[in-house]
Amino acid sequence: MKKTVLLGALTAAAFAAGAASAATLDDVKARGKLNCGINTGLVGFASPDANGRWEGFDVAVCRAVAGAVLGDQEAVDFVNLTGKTRFTALASGEIDLLSRNTTWTFSRDVDLKFEFVGVNYYDGQGFIVPKELGVSSAKDLDGATVCIQTGTTTELNLADFFRANNMSYEPVPIETAAEARQQYLAGACDTYTTDASGLAAQRAAFETPDDHVILPEIISKEPLGPLVRHGDPEWGDIARWTLNALVAAEELGITSANIDELLNGTESPEINRLLGTEGNLGEMLGLEADWAVNAIKAGGNYGEIFARYLGESTPVGLARGLNAQWQDGGLLYAPPFR
Amino acid sequence: MTTLTDPPKGTFRLSMLINDSRYRSMTIQIVALIGFLTLIGWLTSNAAQNLSELGRGFSFGFLGEPAGYDINQRLLDYNNQDSHLRAALLGVLNTLLIAFLGCIAATIVGVFVGVLRLSHNWIVARLMTIYVEVFRNVPVLLWIVFAMAILIETLPSPRDFRGETPEASMALGESVAITNRGFYVPEPLFSRSLGDVHLFGNHPLRFDVSLDLVVILAVLIAGILTARLIGRRADRIQAASGDRPHTLWYQIGVIAVPMVLILTILGFFLGYPELKGFNFKGGTYLRNSLIALWLALSLYTAAFIAEIVRAGILAISKGQTEAAAALGLRQRRIMSLVILPQALRVIIPPLISQYLNLTKNSSLAIAVGYMDITGTLMGITLNQTGRELETILIGMAIYLAISLTISSVMNIYNNSVKLKER
Amino acid sequence: MPQTSYVRTEMVPERAPPPSTAGVIGWMRTNLFDGWMNSILTVISLAFVVWVLLSAVPWLISPTWNATSLQECWALIEAAGKPEGACWGVINERWPQMLYGFYPEELRIRPTLAFFLLFVALIPVLFNMISRRMNWLLLVLVLFGATFFAAASVLMVAVQVVLGAALAWLAYTVVTTKAGDRAEAIAAGASRLPNPLIFSALYVFLMPWLLWGGPIWSPIGAAMGFVLGWAAYRMLAAVIGNLGAIIAAFLVPVVWWLFLIGYFVSALSSVLPIGLEPVDSRLFGGLLLSVTIGVTAIAISLPLGIVLALGRQSDLMIVKSLSVMFIEFIRGVPLITLLFVASVLLNIFMPPGTNFDIILRVIIMATLFASAYMAEVIRGGLAALPRGQYEAADALGLDYWKAQRLIIMPQALKISIPGIVSTFIGLFKDTTLVSIIGLLDPLGIGNAIRSNAAWTGIVWELYGFIAFLFFVFTFSMSRYSMYLERRLRTDHG
Predict the structure, then answer these.
(1) pTM here?
(2) Which residue of A has its CA nearest to B146?
(3) What ranges do the domains of chain C cover?
(4) Measured between CA atoms, how close is A172 to chain B, in angstroms?
(5) In this complex, how many residue pairs, one in chain A and one in chain B, have their CB atoms less than 8 Å apart?
(6) Looking at the domain C64-103+283-493, which fold is it?
(7) Per the CB < 8 Å rule, is B142 touching C443?
(8) CATH 3.40.190.10 in chain A, residues?
(9) Which chain C residues are closer than 8 Å to A10 by Cβ?
């Protein structure tokens, strides 16, 4: 990299004030707001309600982190990002945390230089087909027209799956989930493929959900999780342990309903440590002692968030499946808080 | 006698750079140039610094890596193991295809509507006005999305063609299938095909040349040239004797007879689409995305072209028609010899910019998933490789090249019809 | 001898025109059924109109205005015994979002006020056909109306009283004095109201303040830059000559804006904290976003376009080729690629660490985009000016800048107004493209609404409403531009 002295001086003079410090935590605290990148609209994960308040599973992660860091779950500026703009926005520092159903892959972690702080939803790519088609396995889809959402890992998985099984297909790339739904329901494609959670969410909102089946094959692993930039481990720790706190809270039975009661002190040292009534975990993260309390109060523990936005009582209607706690046969396993 | 033509000779002072008009322009230019170069340098150095901070270089190496994704509309052969460069090439071809089809359709519809707007028929003229206003005043992106939604929602899906009593049936004597996935039309096939010539081996820019097509084109061009020769000869005879021999049948003959012959030799037949498995098989498949984009772009642009055509016709004064009629020209000749050449002069320059707009608007293809250069190189390739700078630079360069080519070609044409001023 | 008269002496009584050319039938004959070709066209057109109406109207009339979800709509339509119908509940519930995006509800009066003031500010620039009194009357009326939507307070009541009094006085003078009398009085030396263009100039600083809020010292500080530049020119012109003064007049404001304004604003706000509640630009959405991007980009692109057009016309080779390169580059690439640059590349080209939000970046790229088109429009205006104007300016001994300022530009800009308006219409329509990079313009908001579990599956109602919004705006603007074209046409052909 070559640079003349003159240019350097100009740059330094003109934008001396603009330089951001490496510590994201200090930036966020100074700003008083967390900049969080979310989807432009995905049922169950991020959508605006009539008052313009963003709601959803991914949004809840943003609010929890804002609660942990700033003590206020509303202190979030949401930045809507497309599949194309999300990584640049994070890399350039426009957002502090990306919580936009992003699959944790090797190249994103290593090559694109991001740090995934955990998995908030274990997903996998599946297919949905109308029952009348009489297809019972993805292996029967030879020659089918397949709707896919672009800008994601799904189109690569799809290409791999059909190549591995020596089948042909006709891809129909689509920008948004709403359009995919429209094309699929009108029969413009035989099957629609995306993350199984998305399929279930879509299917639940169909006029006649029972006419459609999600095929048993899950052709990929899609661990979705929030991520931060490389190079700021402290900030990464905060995001990681906020997520873990939500998971651990469910395991330990801490809910938004009983948390105030538990704050008065409990028998369980782990709960006390998590809630900051014992030990100094918050201080180690550079946060207040009640960081986890605020994170949990933001939207409840992991189980509550799941139930509110994705669970069986919502239109999305997802079962916990892989996303159950480890005691219940799921993959959620928060490391110990000590 | 003294003349004042010689400027006072004096020593050069620095202040003359600003105050002396001989040097001032030089000063301004040099300042502008330095300012420009500084800006470029500043931007480049920032980019270099930022990229190195992100740990990324600036290289086009990713173009050689396997793309990994599939493209549905392929004008050349392609599979997901081909390189990103080849995917980009397919995107460029798709862009050119939609631009070409769009310009033709927009011109035809635009001229038609522009003329009808001047019609004496009250209801037709009103309808055309409504068409022009509605299409011009709603964003083209909305039209594209609309067109796609209409195709998807109103046309039957291939499933409806199935069963004992299908809800939908094929049009035009079972030869064309109109579905909400696109239109399947008969394709020309050859039973004694000469095969293809494969050029450039395994290179990303490889392509196949269909020998059938080459032969047919050669015969066609030869036929047209011969027909022209016949026409020239007729001209000479007319000039010499005043009588023009009838040549029309000869001219048609020299084009048509060899054509029929060569088609018979090659064993020409039409391949009809057939419902097999999930989809129709066989025939040429015009995808929904192509049709929606084509419809929306050409109808939108046609609204503008209609206005241009109308203005062009109105710009020619009625006296021209009357004068031509007074010279004894027939109606068709008045149009082709008097009105059209003059109207064209008014129409062509704005028409060029409409063609350019259409080509640029074709980049909105991503809204309906048409895999043009914005969808492949600046879409999926960008997403998968994370090379924003490189892909967008290449994409811009390609669009710039296309735009400049169109405008220079059209400008050459414009110069040929321009009024020669003396 | 019998008198033979070859000339008729009495008038033949007027006869009614043949029934085939008069009345409804006659009109239809000449306008609809004039020959078989036309008759066929008429029948086809009528059939088309009837078909469109028959398929659209029953769908449009649908008792779903109060539904709160698509499922409820279906139930309502079924209850009404209709096969299908529109679901208007989504428009009822979400229209504020489609107009304002996520702009805080209690502050929405601000963009609304800015929007109406825009017209008041544009009238003297574009119409030039209502009197000064009317113009000020309009301004006071809009402000007066706006006060009723603001939070009630003692201060607000005082403002209402003042504005009400001004309104009453202006209305009184408009009603009592005739335009002719007023003109005579002015000719006789009566004092005039100030030129409304003053407000138009102030509006440039007022609009961003109303939209984004913040201390009142920011717009004042921004305006101060121009004042300082003008002062520098005045003071230095006598001391170091014209060109030096121009350079100083250019540099002083730049230094002010880049380095000093921050101190000015923070110092004054700590003393006198007057201001509006700041609103983040990422809360902008819906039509508000389209209008903001469109208006800001066009306003900034006008001076840029003038500079580029002059550069392209200039005799200076380097300046000219730089201008041509810029214009042709911008015009040669699609807007969407420039928006990609705004969304993913612009930050790479800025010094490390600088960060400004996406809407600002989009406005920057839209401005560059519009300025290239603006330059071409103004170049057209310059080219349409007769050579005699340039020669006359030279003959008067005016230098280049004076000639441009006093003779060329006023005329060229006037000719260019229709072109400028159509550039604006084009840009305004093109703002829908920002939905592709994830901004929530009407189209983007539409997609976000469709992702809400209650409204997934809605298509036509949203698109139709958006199309309608755009149509209303652009159609009225294009009508205005046509009206101007007619008015500006000075040849009488």
Answers:
(1) 0.87
(2) A179
(3) 16-60, 64-103+283-493, 108-196, 214-276
(4) 7
(5) 115
(6) MetI-like fold (1.10.3720)
(7) yes
(8) 23-122+223-328, 125-220
(9) none
How far apart CA A189 and CA A146 sit, in angstroms, is 6
User: If residue B321 lies in a helix (H) or strand (E), which one and from where to where?
Assistant: helix B318-326
Cα separation, B137 vs C479, whole angstroms: 11
Q: Spell out which residues of chain B touch residue C466, defining contact as CB-CB under 8 Å.
A: 142
Tell which of C70, C339, C433, C452 to mutate to test the A interface (max A CBs under 10 Å).
C452
Which 462-481 residues of chain C touch chain B by CB within 8 A? 463, 466-467, 470-471, 474-475, 478
CATH code for B92-150+272-371+399-417? 1.10.3720.10
Amino acid type, A241:
W
CB contact under 8 Å between A85 and C355, yes or no, is no
Subunits touching C (CB < 8 Å, at least 3 pairs)? A, B
The contacts of residue B384 (CB under 8 Å, 6+ apart) are A156, B67, B68, B69
Phi, psi of A41 (to 5 degrees): 155, 110
Q: Which amino acid is at C185?
A: A
Task: Look up tokens 């003692």; give the residue.
Answer: C154
Residue-wise pLDDT tens digits, C141-155: 888 888 877 777 778
Separation CA C187–CA C327 (nearest Å): 47
Contact A111 B386 (CB under 8 A): yes
Nearest to A270, CA basis, from A292, A300, A239, A295 = A292
Classify burial at A324, counting beta carbons within 10 Å of its beta carbon; exposed 0-12, middle 13-18, buried 19 or more: middle
Which residues in chain A are contacts of C433 at CB distance < 8 A? none
| Rounded Cα–Cα distance for residues B276 and A168 (Å) | 14
CATH 1.10.1200.10 fits A125-220, yes or no: no
Other C-beta atoms lying within 10 Å of the C-beta of residue B167: 11
Chain B residue numbers with beta carbons less than 8 Å from the beta carbon of A87 are 386
Q: Between β-strands C275-276 and C214-215, what pairing exists: parallel, antiparallel or unpaired?
A: antiparallel
Q: Do C38 and B36 touch (CB under 8 A)?
A: no
Interchain proximity A176–C354, CB inside 8 Å: no
C-beta separation of C374 from C305 below 8 A: yes
Chains adjacent to A (≥3 CB pairs closer than 8 angstroms): B, C
Residue of A156, A158, A181, A185 for testing the chain B interface, max B β-carbons within 10 Å: A156
| Rounded Cα distance, B178 and A290, in Å | 64
Phi, psi of C158 (to 5 degrees): -60, -45
- Alpha-carbon distance A230 to nearest alpha carbon in chain C (angstroms): 15
What are the pLDDT tens digits along chain B (422 aa)? Answer: 455 555 555 666 666 666 676 777 788 888 889 999 999 999 999 988 888 877 777 888 889 989 888 898 888 889 888 999 999 999 999 999 999 999 999 999 999 898 888 887 888 889 999 999 999 999 999 999 999 999 998 888 888 887 777 777 777 777 888 888 889 988 888 888 888 888 887 788 888 888 888 999 999 999 999 999 998 999 899 888 888 888 888 888 888 998 999 888 888 888 888 888 888 888 889 998 999 999 999 999 999 999 999 888 888 888 888 899 999 888 778 877 888 788 888 888 889 889 999 999 999 998 888 999 998 999 889 888 888 889 999 999 999 999 999 888 888 887 887 766 55
ipTM higher than the 0.95 cut: no
Residues A256, A304 contacting (CB under 8 angstroms): yes
Decide if C433 and B389 are in contact by the 8 Å CB cutoff. Answer: no
Of B38, B54, B157, the CB nearest to A91: B54
According to CATH, what is the number of the domain A23-122+223-328? 3.40.190.10
Strand partners, A80: A38
Q: Nearest CA of chain B to the CA of C268: how many Å?
A: 34
Chain-chain contact of A47 with C357 (C-beta, under 8 angstroms): no
